[in-house]
Amino acid sequence: MEPKYKRVLLKLSGEALxxxxxxxxIYNFDLLNEIxxxxxxxxxxxxxxxxxxxxxxxxxxxxGTDFQRVRADHMGMLATAIxxxxxxDTLEHLGIDARVMxxxxxxxxxxxxxxxxxxxxxxxxxxxxxxxxxxxxYFSTDTAAVLRAKEIDADIVLLAK
Length: 161
Description:
alpha/beta; 5 helices; 41% helix
């Protein structure tokens, strides 16, 4: 079967990763495995998959806090890196090679986002997970999803809220 799209960008909300959990858990691990298994199925069909992940499950902005907005946004960006690493680990346990690329330099455990490197990973069958949004406060991960999709020439952006 020929896939309809060659390259897709899937935007996952962080809250989607916790959906169905007991309300205190950061992740619903059954759901996380199910999401990654569906991604594996797409990769096995020859679809190049990139992800942008939010962090609503870990960090809910500055609601109920007195944090300064820019600092709160930075905290949210770091939370997206945690979710990206969780997705990477789950995908790798399912036999799918995945790379986390961050808009913020964290080279100890992610690659710094470089467009050509991301496209190379995709062309080699790796799932690319974009972390830390676009690296600037005041922009949502939805914005990052559309920007990264355009940069990597994705055929479609799929939003999973």
